[in-house]
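Hi R.,

Here's the chain you asked about this morning:
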Amino acid sequence: MYNIPVIIKKEKLFILALLSVFTIGLPALDFDMDRAKAEENFRWGVRAFHNGYYNDSVLSLEKALSYKPSSTLTRIWLGRSLYKSGFEEAALNEWKYLLDSGQGDSLLRNRVQVISYRRELGRELEQGDRYVISNEIDANRNDYYPLKRPTSVHIRKDGTVYVVAFGSNEIVILDANNQVKDILRGGLEGFDRPFDLLEVEGRYLFISEYGRNQVVKCTLQGDKIKKFAGKGRDKGMLLGPQYLATDGKGYIYVTDWGNARVNKYDLEGNFILSFGRGITPSSRLDGPTGIAIQGKFVYVSDRRRKRIEVFDLSGNFLHSFGEDFLTGPEGMTFKNHDTLMIADGNRVLEFHLNQEIWQVLSDVSSYAKRITNLSFNPNGELYVVDFDLNKIFILSQMSSLYTGLHVEVERIVSTGFPEVFIDISVEDRSGNAIVGLQSENFTITESFREVAGLSLVLSNTDPAPIEVVVLVENSQQMSRFSNELKSAVNSIHTQLSGFGALQVISAGRKAILESDFSATRLETVRAATNPVRGFKPGWRFDLGVRMAASQLIPRQSRKYIVFLTRGQLNEDSFKKYTLAEITNYMRNNFIGFYTINFGSESIGGELAYISAETGGKNYNFFASSGIEHIISELSEQISPVYMLKFVSPSEPDFGLRYIDLQVEATLQRKSGRTESGYFAPLTH
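And the predicted structure, written out as tokens:
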């Protein structure tokens, strides 16, 4: 009997002890559960991001932060998803919170600076910036190809550089890294003192041969198709042909140094006319060298008279300028429709046509002897040829010298792990695409271990499928254009045939998917004026364009929205999403926005703004030019995205482990870095 109370007391103490253990362990158990939920939602958020479902990604990452608010990595990813969703201000707030609290690194700080720069007036401040030598190609070096007496340089949109070597009778082809890719020597006959090169229609090369007094038409591979002109003073003949230009209307122009004139030919070499031997002394050419054409005007530099002569396309003299400013003008190129760039002795000059203002962009007299020609590459750099020194100087804007490249990982596809595909965007700080990169321009590591088998799958200038969402303004006023709508959609579908796919979405009170990418041509055309849907009062531009963009984002293609409209938006156009959010959503996902206007008024300011910011264009359906070439024109837009693949060295841990990834892109003396990550597929 004595022991019973003692035993009962001990049992009570044991039970109390057990209860205290469980009670003390409850916070730890809750913490483990919160951490597990945070990790699970983080995984889904990252996976949704790489699948292009940014809204889902935002929701998952916000949920992950609710369980683990201190996660720096989750907040960085939330900022990425908000940015791709078009909510730039919210994204910057997330990243600035980390930087202000000391949790962000230099890469995050750089991302914030670049995005803030683009949102402000940074791009406008670059206007008028001076150019300085950032690099050079020296053919005198023992470790470089010995091209002699370069006269001209032509750069293609993919960054390929053609250098015309007058002294060694060849065309040297360089890649964007300035490495020799190929050499064109003119076949068995060879070239005889080639002087200038002109690419026409993306199919032909025209090369002026100073030694043979002729022009040769070649394939892009340098195979001669025909030659025309020949030595002499008669009509269509040449004495020392130099520079070439095209008016884009099927004609080429050749400066004829020996005859002091310009000859005009068609693309088959048939002589059309010559000009420059005017009646009055003021209208005569004395030493024609460089030539450039903009619109209806032909600009010819006269090296002897030290001025620029202006003619119309029929050769009628109009006026001249620069006589008191130029010292020895030769090659010319247009920077844009209003700005003429001129190689003048040892200076690079810029002349603004509308304002009639001269500017010295670069004085290279300390480095050069005689610069004869110049050409922009797609990355904004200016290649300047020095005939006497066998050099090509590469000039960059001073403000861009130390800014580097802006690199981002856009998507990682790991379904075939350990083989991984990755989309990487490379831009300058203003958001212009960097072209010409090869696999050797990229370094990819996982946990700072280099990946295996890195190769370039698709460059940003390679042909790629085109996918278009036609967005139809579903207003009552558009009902009277039913036949025109069908005609427009039929034309776009026909132009896309074999190159891509088309989808139709109507922008009414709600956005409605009228036909999918797999629909036939007839189904797609009918969808533009769906009789079941009909045209109704009240329509929402923001909902329609948001849905159109979300349809395109997950797809691996070049992406465009073509908006069929009367040209003016209504008061409900930005009821849910602002103009900035709509524009950012497309621009940050590299979707070009184009409009086809069926109304009598010009396109509205908001639509013009979106088109300009996304690299798009505005068409009038009833204009004489129509929309016959819309697909070929929009396909010329260059995305900054490169697709690469590699073999991962990391352990997947059944798809539960976050694999951190680092990317560096370099081009000549510029580079940029970023970090990202992904998960391998889930396995049991």
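Confidence is low (pLDDT under 50) at residues 1-11, 13-23.

Let me know if you need anything else.
M.
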